[in-house]
């Protein structure tokens, strides 16, 4: 698997099928080992003698002075621990310096992460990746694979910088706050091969004296009052009985603390556990920060932290009115209460035992076989009268048995109770987790809603787990909307099931189907990763009615759920214009005026043989090729001229579209050597006449729509200190959008 954003080639990254991306640098020989996870191959270093051995990338990679870069790898060595470094070079190849990671605390044959980040020195123009170990004898072997070089990895949407999220750089963005010291360590931690956001170095919080200890992030990202945020990080408790926690804090512009919401880890052991906390920013909030610590620690105890994030809180279902704290139960039972009956409510324990979302669930316990009613807080839903809503939750019967009546209780703006709309009682399905959904209609005057569950225990000592609670307005499951300005159709799919497979076809009224393009290529059985998906179909024909047919297939299933959209039509342009589109970069699509239509040819590969004594040649011919011809177009402004250059620059397969009735179908084409002519001798005339040699091509199937999912201006702010840094880091605004820095 290719690591996203890696400057290294796939061969260099995975050491498959050979070691051509690497060369020995010091005291070792290299060869291809086996047993890797990112492909079977590994970079196998064997020491020549006692002392440090090093290998480096065979190639050098361009860097920008003053910008930060990261390198990481997975390492395995039973005898001696490892480290990784970035070797900075001048443009002439001379070494400037090396930024090294800490050496892993212990040697281990188990695959574990090593990582480093550093800023390119002022005189650096290139860099190489170094891997290193220091054996005490010859013949000692260490393995490396899954190797990355590029801009620092960070969570998209994180309000914190990469250096505050992880600890690969010597620049520590955390500070001791209470009864502790802070530093970096490199414990031996085995992460999944594709867990790119977990590093080889972690924050170590060392308790000074017996008692509470805490550290916090020094960064103070802006936050907005009324918005729900989530904070989380990996916590490594010193003992399984230690009380360690993460805390989300909000401050005013004058640095006055407004609120601090703490979430304790219910640790099942002494591993690394991601603990979440969420809260709504109070009025007058200006910024937020994150803290972590230990309650009643013992002197010299060390708790460790990695992967710190502050972000806008996720929504369990698109449009759900429940805040994350009341939907996922990561901190406690949230705002849920027992209205009647003997039931008790608590967060499940320990971490990871019961959960669908996150690591915890709501635990409902009843000591007797009786009915209890539990209810959430009230949530605003706007003018809801007459609208249909969905209530969904996940449940797991872990002891006894239960009958559930799932309802929404409605209120008006004055908090007057308007009554219930419910699903009716039914036995809770068991075993394992089940997702239960029912639809309700809001009564007249409804502006607020609360989830209410009537739970009847059918046996003494019954226990029920609840997670992923959501209430949202029920909208169409599939919508297709034309955007004429871009000659595309926006297809929205709602209430998708995560983990199912998705296939999407565009269908002509005659029944002809074509798969629609997504981020990974044509959408054909793609794994669903979000409950709502928006697809921008820029390859739909112009002036022709189409609709969309969608199949959603459960894992291992044979009978899909299907959806069909209404019929829509993109308005065709004037016959004197055409669209030229890049399927993988639709932001570059351009409508231009046609100067002259192609004169088509259809060449064939032929071999001619003159047989002696025979009048006619013997001709051996392959099948006739596709259409070839020169398309003439005008650009009327400098902006159009520059846009056409950008469209043509990658040399990828393009889509040429014209209005119906011109005698030409939509056609995928390769464009040969272009010509650009002023046409007139007047220097100030912006018009240009272009000749585009077209050769018909097959539809590209593996090309995905380029994008950077979830990337916002906040990410740009978190990743770059100044706009000058942005200008130095990216060549174009498109590169900013796609997070494609220079050298990437």
Quick overview of this protein structure:
The chain has about 750 residues and is mostly beta strands.
Overall description:
- This protein is mainly β and 744 residues long.
- Strands 1, 4, 5, 7, 8 and 10 form a six-stranded antiparallel β-sheet that branches. Strands 22, 25, 26, 28, 29 and 31 form a six-stranded antiparallel β-sheet that branches.
- The longest helix is centred in the C-terminal third of the chain and has 11 residues, at 638-648.
- The model has no long low-confidence stretch (mean pLDDT 94).
Shape field = globular
Q: Are there runs of 5+ residues with pLDDT below 50, and where?
A: none
Helix content: under 10%
What do the pLDDT scores average to?
94
Radius of gyration: 31 Å
Key terms:
about 750 residues; mainly beta; six-stranded antiparallel sheet; 51 strands; globular
Question: What is the strand and helix layout of this fold?
Answer:
Layout: H1 10-14, E1 22-26, E2 28-33, E3 42-47, E4 53-57, E5 61-62, E6 68-77, E7 82-89, E8 95-100, E9 108-119, E10 126-133, E11 141-150, H2 162-165, E12 174-178, E13 180-185, E14 202-207, E15 211-217, E16 228-236, E17 243-251, E18 257-264, E19 273-280, E20 287-297, E21 302-312, H3 324-328, E22 337-340, E23 344-347, E24 362-366, E25 371-375, E26 379-380, E27 388-399, E28 402-411, E29 417-427, E30 434-441, E31 448-457, E32 462-473, E33 478-483, E34 488-493, E35 501-508, E36 513-515, E37 517-518, E38 521-522, E39 524-527, E40 533-537, E41 546-553, E42 561-564, E43 577-581, E44 590-596, E45 604-609, E46 618-624, E47 628-635, H4 638-648, E48 654-658, E49 667-671, E50 675-677, E51 688-696, H5 713-719, H6 723-729, H7 733-738
Antiparallel strand pairs: 1-4, 2-3, 3-11, 4-10, 5-10, 6-9, 6-11, 7-8, 7-10, 12-15, 13-14, 14-21, 15-20, 16-19, 16-21, 17-18, 17-20, 22-25, 23-24, 24-32, 25-31, 26-31, 27-30, 27-32, 28-29, 28-31, 33-34, 34-40, 35-36, 35-39, 35-41, 37-38, 41-42, 43-44, 43-48, 44-47, 45-46, 47-51, 48-49, 49-51, ...
């Amino acid at each position: 698997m290719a690591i996203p954003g890696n400057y290294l080639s796939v061969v260099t990254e995975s050491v498959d099928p050979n070691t051509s991306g690497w060369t020995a640098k010091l005291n070792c020989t290299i060869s291809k080992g086996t047993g890797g996870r990112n492909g079977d191959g590994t970079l196998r270093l064997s020491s020549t003698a006692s002392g440090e051995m090093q290998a480096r990338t065979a190639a050098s990679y361009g860097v920008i002075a003053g910008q930060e870069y990261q390198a990481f790898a997975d390492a395995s060595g039973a005898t001696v621990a490892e480290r990784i470094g970035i070797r900075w070079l001048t443009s002439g190849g001379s070494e400037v310096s090396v930024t090294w990671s800490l050496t892993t605390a212990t040697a281990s044959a188990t695959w574990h992460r090593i990582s480093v980040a550093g800023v390119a020195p002022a005189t650096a123009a290139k860099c190489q990746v170094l891997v290193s170990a220091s054996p005490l004898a010859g013949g000692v072997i260490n393995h490396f694979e899954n190797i990355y070089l590029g801009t620092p990895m960070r969570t998209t949407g994180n309000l914190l910088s990469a250096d505050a999220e992880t600890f690969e750089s010597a620049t520590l963005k955390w500070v001791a706050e209470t009864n502790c010291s802070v530093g970096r360590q490199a414990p031996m931690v085995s992460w999944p091969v594709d867990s790119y956001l977990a590093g080889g170095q972690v924050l170590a919080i060392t308790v000074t004296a017996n008692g509470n200890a805490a550290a916090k992030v020094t960064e103070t990202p802006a936050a907005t009052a009324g918005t729900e945020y989530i904070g989380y990080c990996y916590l490594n408790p010193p003992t399984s009985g230690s009380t360690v926690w993460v805390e989300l804090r909000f401050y005013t512009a004058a640095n006055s603390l407004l609120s601090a919401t703490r979430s304790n880890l219910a640790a099942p052991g002494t591993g690394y556990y991601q603990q979440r906390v969420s809260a709504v920013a109070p009025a007058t909030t200006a910024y937020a920060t994150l803290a972590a610590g230990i309650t009643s620690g013992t002197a010299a105890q060390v708790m460790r932290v990695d992967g710190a994030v502050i972000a806008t809180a996720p929504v369990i279902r698109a449009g759900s009115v429940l805040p994350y704290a009341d939907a996922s139960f990561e901190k406690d039972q949230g705002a849920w209460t027992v209205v009647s009956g003997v039931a008790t409510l608590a967060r499940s324990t320990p971490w990871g035992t019961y959960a669908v979302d996150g690591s915890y669930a709501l635990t409902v316990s009843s000591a007797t076989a009786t009915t209890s009613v539990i209810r959430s807080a009230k949530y605003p839903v706007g003018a809801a009268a007459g609208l249909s809503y969905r209530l969904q939750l996940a449940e797991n019967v872990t002891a006894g048995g239960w009958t559930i009546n799932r309802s929404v209780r409605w209120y008006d703006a004055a908090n007057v109770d308007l009554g219930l709309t419910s699903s009716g009682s039914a036995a809770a399905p068991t075993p394992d987790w089940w997702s239960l959904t029912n639809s309700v209609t809001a009564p007249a005057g409804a502006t607020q809603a609360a989830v209410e569950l009537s739970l009847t225990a059918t046996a003494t000592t019954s226990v029920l787990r609840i997670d992923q609670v959501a209430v949202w307005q029920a909208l169409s499951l599939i919508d297709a909307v034309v955007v004429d300005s871009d000659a595309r159709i926006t297809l929205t799919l709602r209430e998708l099931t995560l983990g199912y497979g998705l296939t999407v076809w565009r269908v002509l009224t005659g029944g002809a189907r074509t798969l629609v393009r997504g981020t990974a290529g044509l959408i054909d059985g793609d794994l669903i990763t979000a409950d709502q998906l928006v697809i921008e179909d820029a390859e739909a024909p112009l002036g022709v009615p189409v609709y969309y047919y969608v199949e959603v297939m459960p894992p291992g299933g044979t009978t899909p759920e299907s959806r069909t959209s209404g019929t829509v039509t993109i308005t065709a342009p004037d016959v004197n214009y055409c669209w030229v589109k890049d399927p993988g970069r639709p932001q570059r699509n351009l409508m231009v005026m046609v100067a002259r239509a192609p004169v088509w040819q259809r060449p064939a590969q032929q071999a001619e043989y003159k047989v002696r004594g025979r009048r006619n040649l013997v001709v051996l011919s392959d099948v006739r090729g596709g259409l070839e011809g020169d398309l003439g177009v005008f650009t009327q402004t400098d902006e159009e001229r520059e846009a056409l250059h950008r469209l043509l620059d990658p040399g990828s397969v393009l889509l040429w579209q014209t209005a119906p009735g011109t005698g030409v179908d939509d056609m995928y084409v390769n464009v040969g050597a272009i010509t650009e002519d002023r046409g007139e001798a007047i220097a100030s005339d912006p018009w240009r006449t272009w000749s585009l040699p077209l050769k018909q091509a097959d539809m590209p199937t593996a090309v995905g729509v380029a994008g950077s999912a979830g990337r916002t201006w906040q990410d740009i702010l978190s990743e770059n200190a100044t706009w000058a840094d942005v200008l130095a880091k990216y060549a174009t605004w498109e590169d900013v959008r796609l997070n494609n820095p220079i050298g990437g």
